[in-house]
Design goal:
By secondary structure, the chain is an alpha+beta fold. The chain contains 18 helices and 22 strands. The chain binds adenosine-5'-diphosphate and magnesium ion (MG). Adenosine-5'-diphosphate binds near residues 38, 81 and 96.
Length: about 625
């Protein structure tokens, strides 16, 4: 038979990749703004028309591009920012994939004008649907201007999928806020349909926040500042009495990059415990600086997610830093806010001596073990863990008996898929030999050598398959809540929940009431602790906003992935021996044990041969 495999032409590959990078006008805004920042611009202008559907233009005074680079910048995987995989761990730029411009040019009409400082003239390129229409010399100021017109002109399905201008504009403004907040040292202007919406001069962080959110914000801010070995935290939290029902002003920046983390959000919420009315959300603007080697940003093309090596410690540190600030500024108990001297007195961590022991204690302290045996007052995360582990047992009983060694044959039921990793000679010998490394990996022996499992990814895989299973057979087991749970969301967020309502019900959620701005829940899936419900829904909403599922199938998959991610045991979490064993067991009972739901390696093996070689 004739050969049938063909390489896709570049413009097709680019269109496919574009689906990942460009979801909506706001994605273009983000990519272009980030490129301008990476080019060391100090003045950046954003111009949009029709919420970005007709035009997104970014003009910067950055370093510009040479003639060759201007042309190359639209090639896939063309980047000036990294040279090798190693550089990923020392990133100081926003971009690194070299995908954005190629993707954007595949699905829009793009005009680039750029000039480097020492050149007399610049270069202009017009590209439409990956085809270069023209490239010529132009007179243009130093820097770069990129106009992206008629987004998705050649993919009508995508274009039709865009929401109303009001919704898309909201996304664009969100993106603009995030970038502008992360860079108070850059001046930004924003023009929407010809009128100036923002004009932000270079300023300090507090002023930038106030310039964006209005003068009234100033009195609401409480500084947070903490320096530790693993993490520096700086920024502001909103005073509790200004907390709102919607989750608007919540910003985490990690090394100047906006990220979403329902988990860390929970840390802040718990620092506010007892200070907020139910249903209210604190606002925060927090910059976290961590060693780039301890994070992994290469997770999602839109890069609002980061994996931390040790989320548990971050959680504890963040919570204690915020608590500390709230205490320091006498926010709890609330006394008098008329005169607020703090505003002019930045918190310089003046009593460092007395503070640092607090941090030390917190670092070694495991908030998730707290009250472990006291039974009554279980903390959110302890509950989560217990429930998670329960969920690992779910279904195990019916899958045959456990052998003395803990690993019954039946766990390798799916021969084809597990074979590659585990053929007969490679079966796990002894479960008693599992060992947890750095609260992150589980090490186990196999006949040919050893196995190292990433606990977080492995658990995600297990939960993901469980959820998918429930979603397909449409009978997730539900536990009834004693009291209905009322959660508040924005109308946009409610819309997303509505879209996913049926699927959520199949996993075990029971909604009793859905209004324009709140949901009432009376039942949750058995493996979801009540205290986690808001984190899960928040994560889910974030994921949907990031990925914009385009079919029912992808929405279901997203839901399973999202819930698995929220509920999976975190890195930094210590596991008992039997928990470790069950994790290993369940993982290899999965259909695709080798990778996490987001296609990341869940385990590696090292044979005795390989070990021997290292000891030569
Ligand atoms: P990435 O940002 O991941 O490198 P992009 O596709 O966004 O990929 O951009 C490709 C390359 O084009 C960048 O690496 C950079 O060298 C160049 N570039 C893009 N935008 C600008 C700009 N505004 N100013 C200068 N150079 C730019
Ligand atoms: Mg880029």
């Amino acid at each position: 038979m004739a050969d049938i495999i063909q390489l896709l032409p570049d413009h097709v590959a680019n269109q496919i990749a574009a689906g990942e990078v460009v979801q909506r006008p706001a994605s273009v805004v983000k990519e272009l703004l980030e490129n301008a920042i990476d080019a060391d611009a100090t003045i950046i202008k954003l111009i949009i028309k029709d919420a970005g559907k007709t035009l997104v233009q970014v003009i910067d005074n950055g370093k510009g591009m040479s003639v060759t680079d201007a042309r190359l910048s639209f090639e896939r995987h063309a980047t000036s920012k990294i040279r090798s995989a190693d550089d990923l761990f020392h990133l100081h730029t926003k971009g690194f994939r070299g995908e954005a411009l190629a993707s954007i040019a595949a699905i829009a009409h793009v005009e680039l004008k750029t000039k480097q400082e020492h050149d007399d003239v610049g270069n202009a390129i017009v590209i439409e649907g990956s085809n270069v229409v023209s490239q010529e010399v132009v007179v243009t100021p130093k820097g770069t201007s990129i106009s992206v017109k008629n987004l998705f002109f050649n993919i009508p399905a995508r274009r039709n999928f865009l929401k109303s201008n009001a919704v898309e504009l909201r996304h664009v403004i969100d993106e603009f806020h995030r970038v502008a907040l992360a860079h108070p040292n850059i001046s930004f202007a924003f023009y929407n349909n010809g009128s100036e919406t923002f004009n932000l001069a270079i300023s300090n962080y507090r002023q930038r926040i106030v310039n964006i959110f209005g003068n009234k914000t100033n009195e609401k801010l409480v500084p947070v500042e903490e320096e530790t070995e693993v993490l520096d935290i700086s920024g502001f939290v909103g005073k509790p009495e200004f907390a709102k029902k919607t989750r608007g002003e919540q910003y985490f920046f990690v090394n100047d990059r906006f990220i979403k983390s329902p988990y860390l959000n929970h840390a802040i919420a718990s620092a506010f415990d007892g200070l907020l009315k139910t249903g209210n959300h604190p606002s925060y603007f927090l910059n976290l600086k961590v060693n780039p080697q301890t994070i992994d940003i290469n997770i999602h093309p839109t890069k609002t997610e980061i994996k931390f090596d040790d989320e548990h410690t971050l959680y504890a540190l963040l919570r204690s830093a915020v608590k500390h600030s709230l205490g320091q500024f006498n926010i709890a108990p609330v006394l008098d806010f008329e005169r607020d001297a703090n505003l002019d007195t930045p918190y310089h961590f003046s009593n460092k001596e007395t503070n640092s022991p607090v941090i030390e204690v917190d670092r070694s302290f495991n908030p998730f073990k707290e009250n472990y045996s006291s039974g009554k007052q279980t903390t959110a995360f302890k509950k989560q863990t217990l429930n998670n582990w329960d969920s690992l047992y779910v279904g195990l009983e019916s899958k045959g008996t456990k052998t003395e060694h803990g690993f019954s044959e039946v766990h390798f039921e799916s021969e084809e898929t597990t074979l590659s990793a585990f053929n007969d000679t490679n079966k796990i010998e002894q479960t008693k030999t599992t060992y947890q490394l750095h609260n992150k990996y589980i090490v186990s022996t196999i006949k040919s050598g050893m196995l190292v499992i990433d606990q977080h990814r492995a658990h995600q895989r297990i939960l993901y398959e469980d959820f998918l299973n429930n979603l397909t057979i449409k009978q997730g087991v539900s536990q009834q809540l004693l009291f209905p749970l009322q959660l508040h969301f924005s109308t946009q967020e409610i819309e997303i929940i509505n879209q996913l309502k049926e699927d959520l019900e199949h996993t075990g959620f029971v909604f009793s009431n859905l209004t324009e701005e709140s949901v009432e829940i009376i039942g949750v899936p058995v493996m979801v602790p009540e205290s986690e419900v808001s984190i899960i829904l928040e994560q889910l909403i974030g994921d949907v906003e990031n990925e914009v599922p385009d079919s029912h199938f992808s929405a279901t998959d997203l839901l399973a992935k999202s819930m698995a991610k929220s509920l999976a045991i975190k890195r930094g979490h210590s596991l008992q021996k039997d928990e470790q064993e069950h994790l290993v067991n369940k993982l290899f009972a999965c259909k695709e044990p080798n990778v996490s739901p987001t296609n990341r390696t869940t385990f590696i093996t090292m044979s005795v041969d390989e070990l021997d070689k290292k000891f030569i």
